[in-house]
Design a protein that fits this description.
The radius of gyration is 28 Å and the shape is globular. The termini are far apart. A hairpin with a 4-residue loop joins strand 18 and strand 19. With 673 residues, the chain is of the alpha/beta class. The chain has three domains: 174 residues, Rossmann fold (3-Layer(aba) Sandwich); 146 residues, Bifunctional carbon monoxide dehydrogenase/acetyl-coa synthase(codh/acs), Chain M, domain 3, CATH 3.30.1650.10; 227 residues, 3-Layer(aba) Sandwich (Bifunctional carbon monoxide dehydrogenase/acetyl-coa synthase(codh/acs), Chain M, domain 5). The protein has a six-stranded parallel sheet with strand order 3-2-1-4-5-6, covered by helices on one side. The chain has a four-stranded mixed sheet with strand order 10-7-13-12. The mean pLDDT is 93. The structure holds iron/sulfur cluster and nickel (II) ion.
């Protein structure tokens, strides 16, 4: 058998020869780092073949530079391959490395003889919080084995040739320059940074060309060990491994330690899956989301009322519904613990969202009595049942809150009548939680709280939670955020000093701006807490309602998640949600909780609740007496009936006519824009 060293030599010579005949312009769009590896190693921002040869000379004939220039000349790749990863996407990946949600990087190249071995490696990488890049025949093998690929799955198919693995090197180079302060051309600090911070290894399956072997081997200079699967690569510095040991060997070599406790359910469970979605076509069964009644509730119970680890399903399981069907659902989590307090309930309850999304085939949006949960066809085909959601929750809660939770039991109710019977009590509990904060004013506190839990979906999103502006998901009040901070001081809820007031009406504060700028990774400079138009808060996707400007009538409409019809804007809740979510600031639109509507601070910059011209009747009914009381307090007891709904004003024309007929006060107010 041929040795790796001989192949490297031939490969270098071949790359060298091809570099001499390279012609034309080279480069990627969507990056400020030219050809990043070449730029990092030489400081030259190469744009054409001539400059490429110069850089290659300066690099001392580095195969990484040759490979990068030659691959750039070949141009992009077609979907589903990603090819070159743009800076914006990379920045997001970089944060996951910095915040520890990704502990290391892997590159898998070559063509596995047995796709299942490659699939198992990928699975293990996901479960161990690694981000994996794939190049070469392995991608097709994984597709054939039914493995889901994509950034959302932390398995990134770079390209069909193993040489596309060069994009893995350009990612390391850019992370060093973006996050590590490495100056282009400063080879030593680039190599140091790569070895120290961007912990990475390569798994090489058979089938690499000589050029690819030379390229892969030069990754070792970045502190990247090369693990060779099978017996195709002998000698050199490559480390032979059995496929089953590859991931652990790589992580050990890099000194990465993660504790993974397997949860006994037939699907993988990892933060790697948190950002995925399950589309309608991929869904086997869904719960809530407007189709069926559904809610979730976490309660503290005396220790002796809990059978630790018990998971109970009351009602039919997935086998009782046809594909594409829906079931009602109550998720009841009972916990006990010496250190547990009732005040902690809402904070822990919010984690149900996170944990269900960890499941490879389970998906969760929203909260309380508006949850929406899906199980994928893949998962159900692999034997996942509703009970497994309970097992997942029971394990995850204990794993993440070992100090607080001594015992936990989970009950999942899919019997529609029972769910309906339990709903009023759940709603009472939600209302009681909201009441604890009633009467507290923003002016009474010096500190607000942040929440960045949703950055896994919306990387630049930051919720600022104040006594009078609860989080847009409606699940976290200022008190809850304070408690969450007490429970985990380094967690997603941090105290934010108000600092100097920039504008009391808009609700703009110096220190809040500073915090948001930092927490949004520089994406958002300033926010107004009480305005819909001027630097409004960003929105992730979890908002209970959307408040949107209706320019024609100088007013604002509010639409809630459970309303599936069209608003007079000609858009449904989900169309609007698609435009404003994702962590962007969208002047004229804000994501809000229901209880914020009842706050004195509700869009006070635009004049407050008097601006509201339209709400779905279900929301009006739900807010009912509380809304009447708030309007009375504001001196507008008869405004309630002047607010239109989908029956009195389905279209914008109807709305204009309606508001005139009832003499809505907004008609006499100063124009919004
Ligand atoms: Fe936290 Fe805001 Fe997401 Fe609610 S919507 S979980 S408060 S980031
Ligand atoms: Ni969110």
């Amino acid at each position: 058998m041929d040795s790796v060293n001989a192949a490297i030599e031939r490969g270098r010579a071949a790359l060298d020869a091809r570099m001499q005949t390279l012609a034309g312009r080279l480069g990627y769009t969507d990056t400020a780092y030219a050809l990043p590896v070449t730029y990092g190693l030489t400081g030259l921002a190469v744009q054409d073949a001539e400059e490429a040869r110069e850089a290659y000379r300066q690099s001392g004939g580095n195969p990484l530079v040759a490979c990068e220039c030659l691959m750039a000349a070949e141009g992009g790749v077609a979907s589903p391959y990603t090819g070159f990863i743009p800076d914006t996407v990379l920045r997001r990946l970089g944060y996951t490395l910095v915040d520890g949600s990704v502990v290391g990087l892997g590159l898998i190249v070559g063509t596995p003889e047995n796709p299942d071995a490659a699939a198992a490696i990928c699975r293990e990488m996901q479960e161990k919080y690694m981000l994996t890049f794939l190049a070469g025949g392995v991608v097709e093998a994984l597709f054939d084995a039914g493995v889901r690929l994509g950034l959302d799955y932390r398995l990134v198919p770079l390209g069909p040739q193993s040489a596309h693995g060069i994009h893995f090197a350009d990612i390391i180079a850019r992370i060093a320059m973006m996050f590590g302060g490495v100056r282009p051309g400063d080879v030593q600090s680039l190599l140091d940074y790569a070895a120290r911070r961007a912990k990475a290894f390569v798994v090489a399956f058979p089938g690499l060309t000589d050029e690819e072997i030379a390229f892969v081997d030069s990754l070792r200079a970045l502190g990247v060990p090369i693990l060779a699967v099978g017996d195709s690569y002998e000698g050199g510095e490559w480390i032979p491994v059995n496929p089953a040991d590859a991931v652990q060997t790589g992580m050990d070599l890099l000194g990465i330690k993660v504790a993974v406790t397997a949860i006994p359910i037939p699907m993988a469970c990892s933060p790697a899956f948190e950002g995925k979605s399950i589309r309608k076509e991929e869904m086997y069964v869904e719960f809530g989301g407007g189709r069926t009644p559904a809610f979730e509730l976490l309660r503290m119970r005396p220790r002796d009322e809990i059978e630790d680890g018990a998971v109970t399903v009351v009602g039919p399981d997935v086998d009782a519904v046809p594909e594409g069907g829906a079931l009602p659902l109550a998720i009841l989590v009972d916990v006990a613990g010496a250190k547990m307090k009732v005040d902690y309930e809402p904070v822990l309850e919010r984690r149900i969202h996170t944990f269900i999304n960890y499941g490879e085939g389970s998906w969760h949006v929203a909260q309380r009595d508006i949850i929406w949960v899906r199980l994928s066809k893949d998962a159900v085909a692999k034997g996942v049942k509703i009970r497994d959601i309970g097992t997942l929750l029971a394990h995850k809660f204990k794993m993440e809150f070992p100090e607080l939770i001594d015992a936990i039991q989970v009950t999942l109710v899919t019997d529609g009548q029972k769910v309906q019977e339990m709903l009023p009590e759940a709603r009472e509990i939600y209302a009681r939680r909201d009441e604890r904060i009633a009467g507290m004013k923003d002016d009474d506190v010096e500190t607000f709280y942040s929440c960045t839990l949703c950055q896994t979906f919306a990387p630049s999103h930051v919720c600022i939670i104040t006594p009078e502006r609860p989080a847009l998901c409606g699940a976290i009040t200022w008190l809850d955020a304070r408690i969450a901070h007490e429970i985990s001081p380094a967690g997603a809820n941090q105290p934010v000093a108000k600092g100097e007031v920039v504008d009391a009406i808009l609700g703009e504060f110096v220190e809040v701006n500073r915090f948001v700028k930092k927490a949004s990774h520089g994406e958002v400079d300033r926010i107004s807490l009480y305005s819909l138009l001027e630097n409004p808060m960003t929105a992730c996707g979890c908002f209970e309602c959307i408040a949107a400007i209706v320019p024609e009538v100088n007013g604002v409409l509010i639409v809630s998640r459970d309303f599936s019809g069209e608003t007079p804007l000609g858009m449904t809740f989900s169309t609007l949600a698609g435009t404003i979510g994702g962590g962007a600031q969208t002047p004229g639109f804000i994501g809000i909780s229901k209880s914020y509507i009842l706050s004195d601070r509700f869009i006070q910059a635009e004049g407050g609740i008097v601006r509201v011209v339209w709400m779905p009747s279900s929301l009006k009914e739900e807010l009912g007496d509380r809304l009447r009381a708030q309007l009375a307090r504001q001196g507008m007891p008869d405004l309630f009936d002047r607010i239109a709904d989908e029956v009195s004003a389905p279209t914008i024309e109807d709305l204009i006519e309606y508001l005139e007929r009832v003499g809505h006060p907004v008609l006499g107010m100063k124009p919004l824009i």
